[in-house]
Amino acid sequence: MADHLPPSLLEACVVVGASSDKLREVYQAANSNGTPELPSLEPEVLHVLAPPFISRQQAESEAVRPFVRRRRSFIRKKREPPPFTASTLSQASSIFAGGGGGGAGGGGGGGNEDISVPKDIDLTALPQLCFPGGLHLSREQKEEEFHFLVFTDVFGNQTHGVVMQCYRPIMEGTNYYQNGTGPSRFSKLYCAYGFCVVSKHPYYTALKDCLSCVLVQLRTCRLSDLEERMKEFSAKLALVPIPPPGQLHVMFALRPLTIVLPSREDKDHPAVDLDLHLPFLCFRAQQLLQVISCLLQEQRVVLFSANWARLTLVAESLLLFLRPLSWQQPYVPVLARGMLDFLMAPTAFLMGCHISHFEEVAAETDDLILINIDEGCVSTSCSESVDLPEIPLAAADCFTQRCLSLQMHFDLHQCHHASCSDINEQRAQRRAWQRNLNHDIQRITLELIVNIFRDVSSHLNYEHRVFNSEEFLKTRESGEQLFYKKVLETHIFHSFLKDRLNRKMDAFTRMELNTRSETQKMKAMVEIPRRPTMQEIQARRNSSITENRLNKRLGMSLPNLGDDRPISFPRHTVLSRIIIPDLLRAAPKPVNVFKLPDFPAALSFHSVQSYYSELILQLGKAIFCVPPENSALLARFYYLRGFINTLCSRRLDALSDFQNLYKTDTAIFPTQLVTWLVDALRREERQQADRRPELKRLILKVKTENEKLLVKPDDHVKKFVLPRTHLHQEEFVRCVQESGIVKDIATIHRLFDALTVGHQKLVDPELFRDFYTFWKETEAEAQDVNLPSEVIEHLDNSECVYKLSSCVKTSHGVGKIAMTQKRLFLLTEGRPGFLEITKFRDIQEVKISSAPFLLLRIPSLRIQTSSRPEMFEANLKTETDLWNLVVKEMWAGRKMAEQHKDPQYVAQALTNVLLMDAVVGCLQTQRSIFAASKLAYFDKVKHEVPMMVPKTTSETLKHKINPSLDLAEPQTVHVLLYTPGQLSCSDSEGNGNPKLWVALSGGRVIVFDAASWSMLQDCVQVGASQLNCMLGLFQEQVWIGSEDSVIYIIDTRSMSCNKQLTEHRHEVTGFALDSRDHQNCLQPYSCSCDGTILHWDSSSLKVKRQFQINCNRLSSIQIHDGTLWCCCGDSIVELRKNGAPQRRIALPDDLRSMPSCFSSFVLILEQGQLWTGCADSGELCLWHIKDHSRPFKRISLPGTTGVTCMIRVKNQIWVGCRGSSGVGGQYDGQLRSQVLVLDPESHAVVKELQAHSDSVQTLCSAEDRYVMSGSACRDGKIAIWKVE
């Protein structure tokens, strides 16, 4: 059971010192010889105290001694302690690894002695770590000292220790002198004892406070009573539960202090219970950046200090500064005097030792980074300076500026406050100040990490788990290249990459998303090949980066081709475009503190049970007092109460608490503990659980999860390598996607056809190599484009030069033709100048001609444009055919983009053009132009499909967006939900803007900012099944109904899904919201396909009522004036308030004869109209619900084969339809499905809107101003329509 339970505060308490026999011997020798020098002693374990301290059996058999239960013991016989040896570094890394039958490394006192050895602790090295400088005697009393330990096992699991050293007189407790006459003739000697409290969690400050409290008793107690005092102290700490992740801290009283255990921020983050500003007091910002750089590059780092406590505190702070990157190498922040040989290890490490060893370590060991904490300096074992690549300048400057704003002196903060007369009140003020300071420091260091690794995600291929490191390096500035090259090879970065490829939503991801500039957000909307914009070229010139950019350009972009330097480019020269200052000044989230009951005076079994009962009672009161909307706090109380109920063997009560926890916050749900509880249920308990529906569901879910095959998640990271064998189409798709050239599968298929023209359908590896090389060369050359300022002035900031011709003669003079995403222009020869040829939207005709030259005819390209009467002609010679394809493709792509209001068409046309260029460049054959023509997709569509979009569609269509942009293939848009903005929201994370929530296949949810239509969240994973419906609640939650019968609840602020409602037994198909005033409380309803309707309490997330309808399939529900209307497949049913059917409108007889059903309906109560649509019928039925004698009316819908969805917007009915399918199910550009707008009064179709090439799946309204339509996977786009 202990393996499944979350640990309590105490793991073990170990008392270390010298044996009584040795002390007696030393005392006698010192006073007999009169020598001033006192010998050093070998420390050994004297007592080990570990839970459980009490049991029911002991309560009966050991009523007199109720404190300690020894889990496992051994007999220590009188012998000399074995010397500590450490031949390998792994021995240091596993100091606290499971020791099995290991014993204490030290000699014993006279006779035999029982020592309790906890199962998972090896005590071999602990004595030396408790006295890292050695165990010394003293002739005078010394003050107590503390230091801190971290033990890491071979699996990377850490255990933490806090050590208190205090001195006691040797003569006390000995019986060597009789009648009290001996001591007067001898000098008094003192020996140090070490008290080490071991915990699984890094509560350094709290455990130090605990030891300080027990110190008051230790100073006055006799040595013979020391063990009992420590037993009592340890047993109390074993009663303290660790708070769950979140904003609930635990407080307890250990007289005379009140001690607080801060909770972890989340389950992946350690608790922070130390002063994070200590490194800032020891080092300047520049030195801190040096240290962080060394850790990121995984150097061999050694910390030095004369104060043992500083070593661990500074080391722990530095590792927290790296978050979310996690140190993967050996970590021993305190090395005892006998462990210095660990520094000879060849691997990277982070260790700490006493400053007295500085010269010795520097002389004996090479290539160490030596950090002197006391003097605040960083050097190497070879020189006084550090010759390592520095952190990128822009990120370092931002960090340095942020550090200036830190308020790191509590006295300055407190000088205007009244003095506290209560020590606990003063400590509370200090804790609050320290918490705010720690929050600011963590935000600043996280910002540093985000600025360093911001662009990593742009070079990831999630489908194939590839990080294109060469491409990433190529975008770095030249001075940063070596730093990134070293960091990218480290284990710490590799672990970070795994989290990015797993789309982990952690603090790094949230800050990176929230601090994106507008330019970065807009770039995320369309996938355009990377080229420097005019703005970036100008910034490069202004920043005086004028190094020779025409050196070996291929560089690191070519795997397997050499080790040339990569091309650099200043990506983010102005960090103000990246960082949002208000975000960093945000205050930490408010916390709640739960105070534990006072510890029982006598720790017997019954008193401990009474203590737990009181604790459960207090937790129940706290749960009752928490407002239902504060579900996060409620979940933490349920967690604690479930844990305590488990300790008390109240298994059913514990399961009930964990069931409530599961509904409120799945992020902290203890799956292993609940599984153990279910397996531990006795027969009568299992029968009781089966009679409680909520427990039965929880047990079923746990069993189902455990029965699933345990598939290890794919966490590998690949680097792109050029192929060495011939490629079939599937292998070719994978290689191209891994290379980062293009992701779209349809485009890659066309590229495959182009490269295999006239050959068998296999791509030769040499051909792929040539194609890849040409693509990368062209990309690198584009980085070297250095246009004159006179030219840049005529171009938009966002324009990039994508293609440049050789110098040719044209009708406007001699020069080079340049192409951007918007226009063609001529770079004139001689004095460089700008002459616009045409914008792509103004082109009227493009054709190949020939121009006379002496006796020859030279191929030329002619372009007729609407902006000028004369035709432009360029003698492009051998480039004519390619430029003809290029210009026509860009012209067609621009036309389609403007007509469809979809900027992605231009981006796709650009990709096609660059692929054509690479195909012609690598083939170098007579058929190269024909091969390139395979990629002229939009020009082909223009000739095969009518390009003209109907006028009504063009006037009504506002914009189109692609939610599948980051995916290899378009996904079906299953559900759309618009949530309005919050005018009162003043935070800087964009929560105040309206949002569009998009449910794609496989449980993927995409979130757009509905103000700018930029993507806010590229993936919130909600289960793995199809999502059927969504509902916005309180502007704080989004409810999502899934095919797996679960209702998932997304928190709109954190964009996380930590709540689930599992009361439905079948597929959840619809939601309805009763917005009438029920004491200002919204009333949500949900339905499932089996006919179940649940009425929810939106605050407590509990079911208030349940209805059941007999039907084939319940697909949706609506609520009008408090009455539920249900779409039941073959009928529309109106329900009474008690859930009984009041009215049923059946499917028309002619549709009953065919496999058809109602797909959707719209109710207009004021006009007494019910409009219904069927999935397999191209017509609507109008029913008169106020006059049953009137027959229903059929309204034919032109060009449709079925109705998929309907909504009412103002006084209109918008209908999503299914049209005819394309040939072979392939996308051919033709608009096949319609959105129809009907007038309920005239019963006529007033608008036929065409914007999708696949069936319209869903419709939603944005405050009756816009309507959004989403389509199936052959199109996969969202159209935004204006409402008139």
UniProtKB/TrEMBL annotation:
Residues 94-507 form the UDENN domain. GO terms for cellular component: cytoplasmic vesicle. Keywords: Guanine-nucleotide releasing factor, WD repeat. One of its GO terms (molecular function) is guanyl-nucleotide exchange factor activity. The keyword Iron does not apply. WD repeats lie at residues 1249-1284. The keyword ATP-binding does not apply. Transmembrane segments: none annotated. One of its GO terms (biological process) is regulation of Rab protein signal transduction. This is DENN domain containing 3. It comes from Myripristis murdjan (pinecone soldierfish). The gene is DENND3.
